[in-house]
Give the backbone structure.
Amino acid sequence: MSLIRFATARDLYEAFSTAQDDIEAEPSDAAPLDFLRTLSDGGEWKKAVSFCAYLLPRREAVWWACRSTRRLVPKLVPAEQAGLQAAEEWVKAPEEERRVAALGLGMRSDFNWPTTWLALAAGWSGGNMALDAKMVAPPPPQQTARAVRAAVLSAVARVAPLERTAGLRACVEDARRIAAEEVA
């Protein structure tokens, strides 16, 4: 069984208007995991991370970004913990009240923190993006993927340059395993 919703990488690109700009790789008719392998084998880690953010379904993408952030930044400053916790709580129980709580936290947190983007990824997974209940603004389909991408890439920016490739390789492999449902 697999969580992959697209027959080809091109299908993924066609599903999200921002995929081409964010992934920065030409789409192909390769199967998604083959496309990901090509990016990885070529050392195109930023592109591979971006592709993973779009490839995984929303909940799994947020879960992967939380796992990646924990892997890349094992000692977050205490102020950052709340965003990670809010995202993980939503992943465990993707209920509306948890989504709204994550969204609110993300909107009032520091946008330089990867954990802010984790909270926003959960918050933008559906429902209403407007915190004012009088307004209705459904999130565009790519909002979670874009926030997941921002979380992982901002987390890797905190990793020592000589350790980044190994960290990114591990994160991309984790996403591949999640997509193929090889992770429990």
